[in-house]
Amino acid sequence: KRRGHPPPPPIVRMQKPASDLMSKVDKLANLPNTANDTSYDNNALKDATEGVVQAASAMKISALDPGQWLEDFRLAMFRTNFEGLGAMEIVDFTEVLDQDLMGMAMPLLQFRRFRKYAADIPPAGGHSYRLDLYAADIAGKAAPGAQCHAWLGCLRLSHFEQKFTSIGVRDLRDFREVREDDLVAMGMPMLQRRRFLMSAAVALPNLPDSAESALATVQSNSAICSTPPQWLETLHLTNWIPAFDALGCLDVVDMREVLRADLEEMELPLLQTRRFLAAVAIIPDPPELPGRRWETPSKWLDSLRLKRYDVYLTKLGVDRVVDFAEVLDLDLMEMGMSPLQRRRFRAAVAVDAQPTLESDAVTGAMKQGAAEEEFAKTAVAALRGEDVLNLTPARWLALIRCENFVLEFEELGVEAVLDFPEVTEDDLNAMGLPTLHKRRFTVAAVQVEELHLFHKEREVANSGEPESTFEWLKVLRLGFFIDAFQRLGVEEIDDFAEVLMDDIVDMGMKPLHRRRFQMAVAELLQ
User: Is 50 exceeded by the pLDDT of residue 24?
Assistant: First the structure.
């Protein structure tokens, strides 16, 4: 009073459990009129009256605003500290620890005063037993879909329900895997974090008592699973089975190849991601098969668990392991290879087929045409250092790994390496050249054409000015048909313009020769 402050309001401590209050209130309400009855025992009236006073006092305290409560007891200067600690309701003051008060540098007198009056605050919900047990009991009685909501409501944490859902909490057992740093990340103050962690340990019986032990249990349970669906069900990831199937997880060991980016793409929440990674960590490595580079393509694919694509890749033109370096992502997608399998395929190619391409071409980031050209250039690198002009067609085809089609090219009329640039796409399709072989051949033929461009220009430029028909045919590499043309009646160079298609077919000229002859005749006519 000397300092000008009003005296603190009187606080009546609850001497008896709140569970007895209602019975005493009922007892008081049913008492008879004892004003003139001297034989009635007034002890019952006294006890009931005390209970009503206690209940009224508790209700009055519980209804107070935390800020008003602090101001009444001259602790308003610590209001910001308590708010930062998470004291949003009057009952939260009962959870404040001594170290919290010392952390906000509260002097001794205020410390004592806070402890004295905080002891008079009734427990949450009016119950006198432990909050964690009370929350577990209420949640256990709730419907299966409402247990999390009921449990958080008992802990006065309902405003964090959406954030718990976003990190992957789907049922009570998921609360066991929530760590304190997760609570900090969602902005939960200290008091609420302490309340959550204390209560999560008893959310359900017969469960691990910490996030670490919960993950260890998940690991041990998943270790005995033999199929991906069973493995995912053990991890409570049943809802994501279709996503992992689409990714290409056909065996449990495939889970080792799933990246965090894959999990983010399928929107796997934080808790489920942590659970998945913990279980993946104990999956044993697949057996290593040394020397795969020298195996057949079929065995190479089998070692990568990709044997099912053997037929498709054989049709594509893969004859040996080194050919896998020329297969594009577009080829893999067309044969239905999943992302996880394509990633595994590319990783093995980088080791066994030794591609020299940049990573963006390997991953399909390049445009299709540029990627095809780069792969084919890698495939025909063996031509470097060779005297291409003097190679036989068979040797040239062997260097670009197309030796199985020597006869087809001979039937087409290829007699020298210079003839290969004249082979068209239709010719390659007609002789059944697979896709990889066609890419390889096309790039190699372009290199040949560029190398001999000057010679070809000279041939075309001089084809109309030779001294004799024999020289004209020799320039066109058709000298062995001189006798046939002489029998046909060709005496001068201008006579070639009168030769018909049927004439050159009858003399046994092959398609490539006919094409070359007609091009030279067109030059004559011009």
Answer: no
Please check whether residue 114 is in contact with residue 100, taking contact to mean a CB–CB distance below 8 angstroms: no
Per residue in 442-490, pLDDT (tens digit) is 888 888 877 766 555 555 555 445 567 778 888 788 888 888 888 888 8
Question: 51: domain range?
Answer: 18-126
Distance CA 364, CA 358 (A): 10
42-46, 252-256, 307-311, 494-498: lowest mean pLDDT where? 42-46
**Band of residue 200 on the pLDDT scale cut at 50, 70, 90:** confident
The Cβ of residue 251 has, within 10 Å, a number of other Cβ atoms equal to 15
* Cα–Cα dist 157/137, whole Å: 16
Using CA atoms, how far apart are residues 277 and 438, in angstroms rounded to an integer?
Answer: 44
Q: Are 413 and 512 in contact, with CB atoms under 8 Å apart? A: yes
Contact 273, 359 (CB under 8 A): no
Q: What is the CATH number of the domain that holds 225?
A: 1.10.150
Angle between helix 270-280 and helix 211-222 axes, rounded to 10 deg: 50
**Which residue's entry shows tokens 């048909």?**
481
Residue 15: other Cβ atoms inside 10 A = 8
Domain-located, residue 54: yes
Report the first-to-last Cα separation within the chain, whole angstroms.
124
Q: Please, what's the b/e burial string for 424-445 (b: 16 or more CB within 10 A of its CB; e: otherwise)? A: eeebbeeeebbbbbbbbbbbbb
The last residue of one of the domains, among 250, 280, 310, is 280
Q: How many domains does the chain have?
A: 6
Q: What is the pLDDT of residue 183?
A: 92
Alpha helix segments (H runs only) across 380-481: 393-399, 406-412, 425-430, 435-451, 453-462, 469-475
CA–CA distance, 410 with 353 (Å, rounded to integer): 31
Confidence band for 500, pLDDT divided at 50, 70 and 90? confident
